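Retro notes (design track)

What went well: tokenization of the new backbones is finally stable.
What didn't: we kept losing track of which sequence belonged to which structure.
Fix going forward: every design gets posted as structure first, then sequence, in one message. First example under the new rule, 83 residues:
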């Protein structure tokens, strides 16, 4: 049973932690320890909590935190982008 996109945000208390699939590259993030998230999910009675627990323990999912981008690359008169 696949959970709806972003449903984990209702189940964990830290709003900065995201759960991501390992098969999709995501830039600007760092991997964090998922033990506390797994313990919090084990306390939940939600029907999708076990889906996230299984994904995190099997390595199909990871917990990440987004990092702010500090560098801007631009030239005068051009649009600028962050990398």
């Amino acid at each position: 049973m696949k959970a709806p996109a972003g449903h984990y945000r209702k189940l964990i208390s830290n709003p900065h932690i995201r759960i991501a699939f390992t098969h999709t590259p995501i830039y600007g993030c760092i991997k964090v320890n998922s033990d506390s998230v797994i313990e919090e999910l084990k306390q939940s009675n939600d029907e999708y909590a076990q889906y996230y627990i299984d994904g995190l323990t099997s390595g199909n999912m990871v917990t990440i935190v987004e990092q702010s981008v500090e560098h801007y690359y631009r030239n005068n008169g051009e649009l600028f982008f962050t990398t």
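Added context from the reviewer: The first helix runs from residue 35 to 42.
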